[in-house]
Amino acid sequence: MTTVNLSLTSDQLKWIDQSARQFGFANRSEFVRNLIRFFSQRADLLFHSQTFPFSSPSTKSKNDILTSFAKTGKYSTAFLKDLEAGLDRSDYFK
Predict the structure, then answer these.
(1) What CA–CA distances, in Å, run from 78 to 5, 74, 75, 86?
(2) Are 19 and 31 a contacting pair, CB within 8 Å?
(3) Residue 34: closest CA among 52, 51, 16
(4) Which of 5, 32, 35, 58 is most buried when burial is the number of CB atoms within 10 A of its CB?
């Protein structure tokens, strides 16, 4: 077996350690190897991780998106105008 050095943030390492304990792995290496085995069999999930936490909207209707943002009452008129302009420029909605 080959040893690989990875640079991780302290939060990432903390998550690995907690998850390894929670799911009963003997150590970090076993946990990471299991993740690699899992993702090697489920490339579809790995594909989605490339854009996480962002994903394509479930609709291609600019009006539906703008309406849903406006309904929350959390966004200023200026933000909503900028959002509309961005949606107008996006190839996704053409």
Answers:
(1) 47, 12, 8, 12
(2) yes
(3) 16
(4) 32
What burial letters (b/e) apply to 4-32, b meaning 16+ CB within 10 Å? eeeeeeeeeeeebeeebeeeebeeeeebb
DSSP state of 9: -
Report the interhelical angle of 77-89 vs 62-72 (nearest 10°).
160
39: how many CB neighbours lie within 10 A of its CB? 14
Cα–Cα distance for residue pair 88/82, rounded to 1 Å: 10
Instruction: Measure the CA–CA gap between 85 and 87, rounded to whole angstroms.
Output: 5
d(CA 42, CA 38): 6
Mean pLDDT by 10 residues, the chain (94 residues): 93 97 97 93 81 79 94 95 94 81
